[in-house]
Amino acid sequence: MGLITPSDFPNLRELYTAQLRYLLSAENQIVKGLPDMIEHADDARLKQAFQTHLQETEGHVSRLENMLGDLIGSPEDKKDPILLALVGSGENITKETEVGPVRDAGLIATAQKIEHYEIASYGSAREWASQLGFAEHASILQKTLDEEKHADHLLTQIAQQTNASASAVAA
Length: 171
Ligand SMILES: [Fe+2]
Ligand SMILES: [Fe+2]
Known about the structure:
With 171 residues, the protein is mostly helical. It has helices at residues 12-40, 44-72, 81-95, 101-131, 135-167. It is elongated and about 55 Å long. Bound molecules: fe (ii) ion (2 copies). The site of one fe (ii) ion has 6 residues, from helix 2, helix 4 and helix 5.
């Protein structure tokens, strides 16, 4: 899986660069995974939320590519195994449920795990960008962080309805 050893990060700049490369891999995996989630979601608001976030996620990819271009001259990613596992767990939920509110509840749970992972990762990256004096990166990362938080918040709202409908599904 290509995990790198601590000696590959002699300083914060290297750690920051690696974080952006993992995030680029994560965002690319999300761009690949979201169309399936859109297709399998039943609730119209959920489908729309995933669709909107897919467009935002394409923007997150471009932002990371530009920042990595500044840092290392090329937008090379580094495979993020955590996203791979999270996307895999989402695929299992789809296989193990029927279309409807129970599946929607599972899809929302998976999506929120991914959002929280992104929120934590972007929060660290933004702090490191500030510390390293990359003020423009810090403000770009803040924009993405705000979109991740908004997506997470919207999913919490949609889940209120979805979870109520899911709990009414007969055993
Ligand atoms: Fe994102
Ligand atoms: Fe996201």
